[in-house]
Design brief:
The protein is α/β, with parallel strands linked by helices and 325 residues long. Helices cover 31% and strands 27% of the residues. It is built from 10 helices and 16 strands. The strands form 3 sheets. Strands 3, 5, 6, 7, 8, 15 and 16 form a 7-stranded mixed sheet that branches. It binds NADP nicotinamide-adenine-dinucleotide phosphate (NAP). NADP nicotinamide-adenine-dinucleotide phosphate (NAP) binds next to helix 1, helix 2, helix 3 and helix 10. Its EC number is 1.6.5.5. It comes from Billgrantia aerodenitrificans. One of its GO terms (molecular function) is quinone reductase (NADPH) activity.
Length: 325
């Protein structure tokens, strides 16, 4: 028997159950991973609350983890039992001691990336990779606005942007989070719970405004974000920490300066094995070079997944959070 977290109905963190299961054998094309560390992500909360529907209930939760391959299904050639691996995509169920998933979503870890670092950075780091290198292929010299800059994705973005020579203005909700974002390389910070973000961006950029805005807060920041952009520039809406952006009248993009908008996801960018491997190479290079260091702000036991999610949802975490089986 092994432990896993599952939920049979959507709701608050109380719906998460810590149960015993017999780990399934991998089907053809699948592998079973014995998790050493599991990544906690805001998307896990969207599935638990029902904002994103789980394919069926009861359901496992979580899509990010790292550990050791424990069993290999028929037809899998790039992995074998004992390999150190990580993953950030695939079926819900990473909140578990053992997770079975398609082998083509699983990558081998370089020797210099340990399991905790991998679990804390696969989903978030690959997200930063596509956002900074693909959604907007930044070259250096641009000014960008990044909301929630002291969070998991934000902490990686601050460092990666600095390495690219991009001026990242990060929003945060406290002086402590501002300090953290600056120590990670944010060019400037704005406390969006106290300051007028549009005015501060105008001051900081001498009226030029931003080349790209990266907004994962969603409902609360949508309009402010549009107002921080240069004419004909790009709004990247990639999350809903405060609730989903709904009911958008496209005319607003005209009114705010002939803007472009995109609503991307990791699965939309790492959609082939080749693309996943290319993105992982870029991420592992950034980790290996020391240009991006992963800040694991919190560690929780797997059994305390609900407590960990409550901390993330109530803005008490900084950097990445991992669950330990
Ligand atoms: N589309 C994709 O491919 C993709 C992939 C990964 C993550 N994401 C998104 O990126 C965002 C960051 O993910 P993460 O896991 O690294 O989380 P996180 O940034 O560590 O935590 C979310 C942060 O959002 C801020 N926030 C603002 N308003 C909030 C509210 N009403 N409730 C809760 N938090 C609020 C908080 O920072 P302050 O206290 O500083 O405001 C909080 O710490 C999430 O929206 C997630 O869905 C998207």
């Amino acid at each position: 028997m092994a432990k896993r977290i599952q939920f049979s109905r959507t709701g608050g963190s109380e719906v998460l159950e810590y149960i015993d299961v017999t780990p399934a054998d991998p089907a053809p094309g699948e592998v079973r991973v014995r998790n050493e560390a599991i990544g906690l992500n805001f998307i896990d909360i969207y599935f638990r609350t029902g904002l994103y529907p789980a394919p069926s209930l009861p359901s496992g939760l979580g899509t990010e983890g790292a550990g050791v391959v424990d069993a290999v299904g028929e037809g899998v050639s790039h992995l074998k039992a004992g390999d150190r691996v990580a993953y950030a995509q695939g079926p819900l169920g990473a909140y578990a001691e053992y997770h079975v998933l398609p082998a083509d979503k699983v990558v081998t870890l370089p020797d210099n990336v340990d399991a905790e670092t991998a679990a804390a950075s696969m989903l978030k780091g690959l997200t930063v990779q596509y956002l900074l290198r693909q959604t907007a292929p930044l070259k250096g010299g641009e000014t960008i606005l990044w909301h929630a800059a002291a969070g998991g994705v934000g902490s990686i973005a601050c460092q990666w942007a600095k390495a690219l020579g991009v001026r990242l203005i990060g929003t945060v909700s406290s002086p402590e989070k501002a300090e953290l974002a600056k120590s990670n390389g944010a060019w400037a910070t704005i406390d969006y719970t106290r300051e007028n973000v549009v005015e501060r961006v105008r001051e900081l950029t001498d009226g030029e405004m931003c080349d790209v805005v990266y907004d994962s807060v969603g409902k609360d920041t949508w309009i402010t974000s549009l107002d921080c952009l240069k004419p004909r520039s790009l709004m990247v809406s990639f999350g809903n920490a405060s609730g989903a952006v709904e009911g958008v009248n496209l005319g607003i993009l005209n009114q705010k300066g002939s803007l472009f908008v995109t609503r991307p996801s990791l699965n939309g960018y790492a959609d082939t094995r080749e693309r996943l491997e290319t993105m992982c190479r870029d991420l592992f290079d950034m980790l290996g070079s020391g240009k991006v260091k992963i800040d694991i702000g919190q560690r929780f036991a797997l059994a305390e997944a609900g407590k960990a999610q409550d901390a993330l949802a109530s803005r008490q975490t900084t950097g990445s959070t991992i669950l330990l089986p």
